[in-house]
Design goal:
Helices cover about 50% and strands about 15% of the residues. By secondary structure, the protein is α/β, with parallel strands linked by helices. The protein has 2 domains: about 40-190, Nitrogenase molybdenum iron protein domain (Rossmann fold); about 195-300, Rossmann fold, CATH 3.40.50.1980. Helix 2 crosses helix 6 and helix 6 runs antiparallel to helix 7.
C-alpha cells in the first residue's frame, strides 16, 4: 500500500510543480505587459515637465535638449535623432522655439510616431518688429503662462491617450490634478499681485510676456524674445532711465544667462539682481513657477 501511495504521490508532485512553474511564467508575462511604458520624446525641459505631470509612471521619457543648452540654439546629433526611431510620441513647443525640429522629423523613419505641437489652441502673443521676419509671428514662451500651460498640458494628454488609450483614465486624472494645482497657484498670486500699485517688471530677456499677461504686469527687457545679439548702449540707457522713473527694486535675469547687462542696470538704479527661471533647462513646473511668482511679488511690494 505504501509503495502504491509513493508511486501516486510522485506524479502529483510533478504536476503541481509544473503547474506552479507555468503560473509563474504566465504572471511574469502578464506583469511585463502591464508594466510596459510608452516611449515619449520631448524637445526641452519645459515640455518634459508638463509631460511628466500627465504621463506619470506610464511613460518612458527622453528629453532631446540637454540642461544648460538653449532650445532654439540646439543642433540635434544622430544620437538624439535615433531616440525618435522607436518612440510612440514626440512633443515639442513649436512657434520657432525648436527651429531644428521639423527637419529632424523629416530625417527619421518611424511611421507610427505621433507628433504634438504643444502650442496649438493657446492664446498667442504676437511678436513685433524685426522678430517677425526672423522667427515668426508669435512669442513662443507659451508655457510661462499658467493659463496657457493648461492648454499645452491638455494637448499632451490627448497625445498620450491617442497612443495609449488603455490608460486614458489615468491621464485624465493626472491632468485634472495638474490643472487644479495650476488654478490654485494662479488664484493665490492673482489675489496678491492685484492689490499692488506697482506692476512693472524689468528682465534681461523678453521671455515673460505670457506670465505678465496672466497677472496684469508690464514687462521691460534689454533683449528681445529670442535673446539674440548685443543690446545697444541706447537701449540700455533707455531701460536705466525707465527703471529710475518707476523705482525698480529688482532686475531679473534668466538662469544660464550672462549677468553683465542686468548687473549694469541694477548698479545704475540702485536695485538688486535676482534670477528668474524660464524652465528651458531645469525646474519642476509648479514649484518653479511658484518661486518665480514669489520673487516677482516681493520685487513689487
Amino acid at each position: 500500500m505504501k509503495g502504491k501511495l509513493y508511486k501516486i504521490m510522485i506524479p502529483l508532485f510533478l504536476l503541481v510543480f509544473l503547474v506552479g512553474c507555468g503560473s509563474t511564467q504566465d504572471t511574469e508575462k502578464t506583469d511585463n505587459k502591464v508594466d510596459k511604458r510608452v516611449s515619449v520624446v520631448v524637445s526641452f525641459n519645459a515640455m518634459a515637465e508638463l509631460t511628466k505631470a500627465i504621463g506619470g509612471d506610464k511613460i518612458e521619457l527622453t528629453t532631446i535638449v540637454p540642461s544648460g543648452v538653449e532650445a532654439h540654439d540646439f543642433e540635434p546629433k544622430p544620437r538624439e535623432i535615433a531616440s525618435l526611431s522607436k518612440a510612440s510620441l514626440f512633443i515639442y513647443n513649436g512657434l520657432g522655439m525648436e527651429p531644428w525640429a521639423k527637419d529632424m522629423l523629416k530625417s527619421i523613419d518611424n511611421k507610427n510616431l505621433q507628433i504634438i505641437e504643444a502650442f496649438k489652441e493657446a492664446d498667442l502673443i504676437k511678436n513685433s518688429g524685426d522678430e517677425i521676419g526672423e522667427h515668426g509671428e508669435f512669442d513662443p514662451h507659451v508655457w510661462l503662462s499658467l493659463k496657457e500651460a493648461k492648454v499645452q498640458a491638455n494637448n499632451i494628454k490627448e497625445g498620450l491617450i491617442k497612443v495609449d488609450s488603455n490608460n486614458k483614465d489615468y491621464y485624465e486624472s493626472n491632468y485634472k490634478e495638474f490643472s487644479k494645482k495650476i488654478d490654485d497657484l494662479k488664484a493665490e498670486y492673482e489675489k496678491k499681485i492685484t492689490s499692488l500699485e506697482r506692476k512693472d517688471l524689468v528682465t534681461g530677456h523678453a521671455a515673460f510676456a505670457y506670465l505678465c499677461r496672466d497677472f496684469g504686469l508690464q514687462q521691460h527687457s534689454v533683449e528681445d524674445v529670442f535673446a539674440e545679439g548685443e543690446p545697444t548702449s541706447q537701449k540700455i540707457k533707455e531701460l536705466i532711465d525707465l527703471s529710475k522713473k518707476i523705482k525698480i527694486k529688482t532686475v531679473f535675469m534668466e538662469e544660464n544667462a550672462s549677468p553683465k547687462v542686468s548687473e549694469t542696470i541694477a548698479k545704475e538704479v540702485g536695485a538688486k539682481v535676482d534670477t528668474i527661471n524660464t524652465l528651458e533647462s531645469e525646474g519642476d513646473y509648479i514649484n518653479t513657477m511658484k518661486e518665480n511668482l514669489e520673487k516677482i511679488y516681493n520685487s513689487l511690494t
